[in-house]
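Mods, move this if it's the wrong board.
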Amino acid sequence: MVHLVFQTRNGQQFPLEAAAKQSLMNAAVAAGIPGIDADCGGSMVCGTCHVHIAPQWRDRLPPISDMEQALLECVPQPHPDARLSCQIPVSEQLQGLVALIPSAQR
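Not the wrong board. Structure tokens:
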């Protein structure tokens, strides 16, 4: 299991243990993390699972696709560290990752 933390903008933390190979979004939804709406269920069409990932983790994530980048430009308050959590597979390389939940998903 991989230890992950979802954190709100006000600092409230939601730690969880996730199985490798599932998406970060699926782990958050299964754990009932508030603020990860995941309306499309991971189809990469809604952007309601986006999170902010600190720059030091970028090299451990898969590259952002053109489609993901285009969708992230349409989320409320676009951010350079935003990623769709449905596009991030959980792996041992993400042990200790903190994903910041934006103040709004819509």
